[in-house]
Specification:
Layout lengths: L4 H20 L15 E4 L2 E4 L4 E7 L2 E6 L5 H10 L6 E3 L4 E4 L5 H35 L5 H34 L2
Antiparallel strand pairs: 1-2, 3-4, 4-6, 5-6
Helix pairs in contact: 1-3, 1-4, 3-4
Family: Belongs to the RRF family.
Subcellular location: Cytoplasm
Organism: Fructobacillus papyrifericola
Length: about 180
Protein backbone atom coordinates (compact mmCIF):
# COMPACT_ATOMS: atom_id res chain seq x y z
CA UNK A 1 0.00 0.00 0.00
CA UNK A 2 1.38 3.44 -0.92
CA UNK A 3 0.05 5.23 2.17
CA UNK A 4 2.30 4.96 5.21
CA UNK A 5 0.00 5.00 8.26
CA UNK A 6 2.97 5.03 10.63
CA UNK A 7 4.26 8.23 9.07
CA UNK A 8 0.83 9.87 9.35
CA UNK A 9 0.59 8.72 12.98
CA UNK A 10 4.04 10.15 13.78
CA UNK A 11 3.20 13.50 12.18
CA UNK A 12 -0.07 13.73 14.12
CA UNK A 13 1.69 12.82 17.38
CA UNK A 14 4.23 15.50 16.51
CA UNK A 15 1.43 18.08 16.46
CA UNK A 16 0.44 16.96 19.98
CA UNK A 17 4.05 17.18 21.19
CA UNK A 18 4.45 20.65 19.71
CA UNK A 19 1.28 21.75 21.48
CA UNK A 20 2.55 20.40 24.80
CA UNK A 21 5.82 22.31 24.36
CA UNK A 22 4.00 25.55 23.51
CA UNK A 23 1.58 25.21 26.41
CA UNK A 24 4.39 24.44 28.87
CA UNK A 25 5.77 27.89 28.17
CA UNK A 26 2.53 29.67 29.01
CA UNK A 27 2.83 31.07 32.51
CA UNK A 28 0.07 29.91 34.85
CA UNK A 29 0.87 31.72 38.08
CA UNK A 30 2.80 28.75 39.41
CA UNK A 31 6.54 28.55 39.12
CA UNK A 32 7.54 26.37 36.19
CA UNK A 33 11.15 26.32 34.95
CA UNK A 34 9.89 25.73 31.38
CA UNK A 35 8.80 29.38 31.12
CA UNK A 36 12.51 30.20 30.87
CA UNK A 37 13.18 27.82 27.96
CA UNK A 38 13.24 30.62 25.39
CA UNK A 39 15.48 32.93 27.41
CA UNK A 40 18.95 33.16 25.92
CA UNK A 41 21.93 34.62 27.76
CA UNK A 42 24.92 36.28 26.14
CA UNK A 43 27.74 34.21 27.55
CA UNK A 44 31.30 34.85 26.34
CA UNK A 45 30.00 36.44 23.15
CA UNK A 46 27.55 33.68 22.23
CA UNK A 47 23.81 33.42 22.83
CA UNK A 48 23.22 30.38 25.01
CA UNK A 49 19.98 28.98 26.50
CA UNK A 50 19.62 29.96 30.16
CA UNK A 51 19.45 26.34 31.33
CA UNK A 52 22.99 25.78 29.95
CA UNK A 53 24.55 28.51 32.11
CA UNK A 54 22.53 28.03 35.30
CA UNK A 55 20.46 25.54 37.24
CA UNK A 56 16.81 26.43 37.71
CA UNK A 57 14.88 25.18 40.72
CA UNK A 58 11.45 25.76 42.26
CA UNK A 59 11.83 26.27 46.02
CA UNK A 60 8.27 27.56 46.44
CA UNK A 61 5.04 27.41 44.45
CA UNK A 62 5.53 30.91 43.03
CA UNK A 63 9.32 31.29 43.05
CA UNK A 64 12.08 30.27 40.65
CA UNK A 65 15.66 30.13 41.85
CA UNK A 66 18.39 30.50 39.22
CA UNK A 67 21.90 29.52 40.27
CA UNK A 68 24.59 30.32 37.67
CA UNK A 69 27.30 27.73 37.13
CA UNK A 70 29.69 30.65 36.65
CA UNK A 71 29.14 33.66 38.93
CA UNK A 72 30.40 35.99 36.17
CA UNK A 73 27.25 35.15 34.17
CA UNK A 74 24.92 36.56 36.85
CA UNK A 75 24.53 40.01 35.27
CA UNK A 76 24.04 38.52 31.81
CA UNK A 77 21.28 36.28 33.20
CA UNK A 78 19.51 39.25 34.82
CA UNK A 79 19.78 41.24 31.58
CA UNK A 80 18.42 38.33 29.51
CA UNK A 81 15.41 37.95 31.80
CA UNK A 82 14.74 41.70 31.74
CA UNK A 83 14.77 41.88 27.94
CA UNK A 84 12.61 38.76 27.54
CA UNK A 85 8.85 39.09 27.11
CA UNK A 86 8.14 37.26 30.38
CA UNK A 87 7.27 40.35 32.40
CA UNK A 88 9.18 39.07 35.42
CA UNK A 89 11.52 41.10 37.60
CA UNK A 90 14.67 39.27 38.68
CA UNK A 91 16.09 39.91 42.16
CA UNK A 92 19.72 39.04 42.86
CA UNK A 93 21.79 38.76 46.01
CA UNK A 94 25.08 38.54 44.11
CA UNK A 95 25.10 34.73 43.93
CA UNK A 96 21.64 33.67 42.75
CA UNK A 97 18.65 35.16 40.96
CA UNK A 98 15.15 34.90 42.38
CA UNK A 99 12.13 35.23 40.14
CA UNK A 100 8.84 35.77 41.93
CA UNK A 101 5.90 34.67 39.81
CA UNK A 102 3.12 37.22 40.43
CA UNK A 103 -0.46 36.14 41.00
CA UNK A 104 -2.38 36.56 37.75
CA UNK A 105 -5.52 38.61 37.42
CA UNK A 106 -8.73 36.98 36.23
CA UNK A 107 -8.50 39.00 33.01
CA UNK A 108 -4.98 37.76 32.29
CA UNK A 109 -6.04 34.16 32.93
CA UNK A 110 -8.84 34.52 30.39
CA UNK A 111 -6.40 35.99 27.84
CA UNK A 112 -4.06 33.05 28.35
CA UNK A 113 -6.99 30.62 28.03
CA UNK A 114 -7.67 32.18 24.61
CA UNK A 115 -3.99 31.68 23.72
CA UNK A 116 -4.33 28.03 24.71
CA UNK A 117 -7.34 27.64 22.41
CA UNK A 118 -5.44 29.32 19.56
CA UNK A 119 -2.44 27.01 20.00
CA UNK A 120 -4.76 24.00 20.11
CA UNK A 121 -6.40 25.13 16.89
CA UNK A 122 -2.99 25.39 15.19
CA UNK A 123 -2.28 21.81 16.22
CA UNK A 124 -5.66 20.66 14.91
CA UNK A 125 -4.91 22.35 11.58
CA UNK A 126 -1.59 20.49 11.43
CA UNK A 127 -3.40 17.18 12.07
CA UNK A 128 -5.98 17.98 9.39
CA UNK A 129 -3.20 18.78 6.93
CA UNK A 130 -1.67 15.36 7.57
CA UNK A 131 -5.10 13.81 7.00
CA UNK A 132 -5.51 15.72 3.73
CA UNK A 133 -2.10 14.60 2.48
CA UNK A 134 -2.85 10.99 3.44
CA UNK A 135 -6.27 11.10 1.75
CA UNK A 136 -4.67 12.51 -1.41
CA UNK A 137 -2.10 9.71 -1.39
CA UNK A 138 -4.87 7.13 -1.00
CA UNK A 139 -6.86 8.56 -3.93
CA UNK A 140 -3.78 8.68 -6.17
CA UNK A 141 -2.86 5.05 -5.49
CA UNK A 142 -4.20 3.16 -8.51
CA UNK A 143 -3.27 -0.23 -7.01
CA UNK A 144 -5.97 -0.04 -4.33
CA UNK A 145 -9.41 -1.54 -4.79
CA UNK A 146 -12.46 0.53 -3.94
CA UNK A 147 -12.87 -1.35 -0.65
CA UNK A 148 -9.22 -0.75 0.26
CA UNK A 149 -9.63 2.96 -0.50
CA UNK A 150 -12.66 3.19 1.82
CA UNK A 151 -10.92 1.16 4.50
CA UNK A 152 -7.80 3.34 4.32
CA UNK A 153 -9.84 6.55 4.38
CA UNK A 154 -11.76 5.29 7.42
CA UNK A 155 -8.50 4.41 9.16
CA UNK A 156 -7.03 7.88 8.49
CA UNK A 157 -10.25 9.55 9.65
CA UNK A 158 -10.24 7.55 12.89
CA UNK A 159 -6.60 8.45 13.45
CA UNK A 160 -7.44 12.12 12.87
CA UNK A 161 -10.42 12.01 15.23
CA UNK A 162 -8.33 10.37 17.96
CA UNK A 163 -5.58 12.96 17.64
CA UNK A 164 -7.99 15.90 17.64
CA UNK A 165 -9.64 14.48 20.75
CA UNK A 166 -6.22 14.19 22.41
CA UNK A 167 -5.41 17.80 21.46
CA UNK A 168 -8.72 18.94 22.94
CA UNK A 169 -7.89 17.10 26.18
CA UNK A 170 -4.41 18.67 26.38
CA UNK A 171 -5.89 22.13 25.86
CA UNK A 172 -8.70 21.53 28.36
CA UNK A 173 -6.18 20.46 31.01
CA UNK A 174 -4.13 23.61 30.48
CA UNK A 175 -7.24 25.83 30.53
CA UNK A 176 -8.36 24.18 33.76
CA UNK A 177 -4.91 24.79 35.23
CA UNK A 178 -5.06 28.45 34.19
CA UNK A 179 -8.57 29.17 35.39
CA UNK A 180 -8.50 27.32 38.73
CA UNK A 181 -5.43 28.94 40.25
Amino acid sequence: MAIDFNQATEKMKGAQDALRRELAEIRTGRANPRILDRVEVEYYGAMVPLNQVASISVPEARMLLITPFDKSALEAIITAINVSDLGLNPASDGNIVRLAIPQMTEERRKELAKEVKAEAEKSKVAVRNVRRDAMDAIKKDKDLTEDQVHESEDKIQKLTDDNIKAIDEIAADKEKELLTI
